[in-house]
Amino acid sequence: MFSLAGMPRVLQQRLINPIVRRAWDWKIPIPGDALLETSGRRTGQPRYTPVCDGLDGDVFWLVSQRGRRADWVRNVEADPHVRVKVGGGPRARWRAGTARLVEDDDPHERQRILARSGFMRRLCLRTSKAMNANPLTVRIDLDPP
Fold it and tell me: What Gene3D superfamilies does this protein's entry cite (predicted)?
């Protein structure tokens, strides 16, 4: 029997994320998006995940749609040292930081707060929110630039 339950995740992983990663490679990132770099928990190799831009000063907020089941969250649990690439075009830059899971944060409220700071971020967050299965907030304390 065919099930559509996993379709949003498959659509995101197989279609949307590769397009967003390619846009970053071509230095034409989609406004409202950012790129998260983690270290693979088994390989130690860099892993890149498109995320919504959650930059708020020297803190970067993320909401994992799949909670602890997301591969990037498992990578963060194994090694919390991450980088995020923010900004568009030639202004895009990597910022290093330390990630931690924030169990007592309300991820839906966090998305509402982040959505207040611009149309493109709001669009990314709304699209992301539509795929939330078991959301979890992740806070990245960024190193000074």
Answer: Electron Transport, Fmn-binding Protein, Chain A
DSSP 71-95: HHHHHHHH--EEEEEESSGGG-EEE
Domain ranges of the chain: 7-142
Q: What is the CA radius of gyration of the chain?
A: 14
Dist CA 130 CA 98 (whole Å): 27
Query: How crowded is the C-beta side of 16, counted as CA atoms within 13 Å?
Result: 17
Q: Which residues of the chain have pLDDT under 70?
A: 1-17, 19, 21, 23-24, 26, 89, 128-133
Neighbours of 48 (CB within 10 A): 17
77-114 confidence digits (pLDDT tens): 999 999 999 887 677 899 999 999 999 999 989 988 88
